[in-house]
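Q&A log
Question type: sequence-to-structure
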Amino acid sequence: MAHLAAVIPQKGGPLVVQSRPTPDPGQNELLIEVKAIAVNPVDYYQRDMGMPPVPIYPAIVGSDIAGIVVKAGPNVPDSAPKPGTRVTAFASSFYKAGAPDYGSFQKFVLANSEGVVPLPDTISFDKGAVFPLAVMTALSGWTTIGISLDTKYTPEQKQAVLLWGGATSVGTFAIQSAKQLGFTIYTTASQKHHEYLKSLGADRTFDYKTDDVVSQIVTAAQQDGVSLKTAQCLSPGTLQPILDVLKETKGEGLAKVAHAPPLLPGAPSLEGVEVTFVLPPMEESDRAQHTHRVFQGWLKEGIAEGTVVSSPHVQVQEGGLEGLNLALDTLKQGVSGTKIVVRV
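Response status: OK
Response body:
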């Protein structure tokens, strides 16, 4: 059996659609027929620059899919979705030494069962594809800076968080998860996205384009009487204003920033503020446990209970696998409050 895949033949791309053998699932793996793929900035970084490192060419990248389980491998837990089930899945070759059976840019893909979550019929494949990497990144943001996903702040504790870049795909799940953790949520976005972000759980929204946005946030924190010493940086090049806010709000203790974009040399810093690049645990057993907690706990339960919704809005790129290059080019040019999805 064979299927089509969008392959990076050599460093620098572009993607080329080719036929490749369809694999059988191994230990704790599911084979999934892909119906929709969501694209992320890391995908065009890998296509265009080979970064993060691509260890094998021809390469298949990508991580976000929705589709139908076709086959289960040995030792898959009884709780895992059965063949025929509609699912969303974290299907990435990044933690598989680049092995091309695992990248999402193809019609059939392997995924570890702990990263596969059932999709109810009420959620389309298009909307289901947006969850995996954005959810993993948003929730890993909390654990990266030492905040347990079981945290439940009470209103009396007045713990606030600054989410800079709330309309990004990661930002929308950072908002949803911050609400469940009990934070008072301050977030930045273009004015046109403010009401939408409030519907996801943001308490206060600020237009990052205004000249006095930093003083607006500081004033709001003072008016609300909250402790603001935690932040997630969700947009490239926005660490400095976050530090400017925390300088005024963090008080005597250590403030912490989870930085989702790559932390580049020469990034700004501030005494008393710890900035950490967001990553899931690197040890394989720890990462599997974390993935299980994120997907089988937070996401699966949230979808079932309706406390987690697909976000942000979906923009469909036509052309199937052939349309992935254009989807990545569009994303590279910049989108706002939108997730680009390709139907396969």
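Response note: The longest strand covers residues 29-38.
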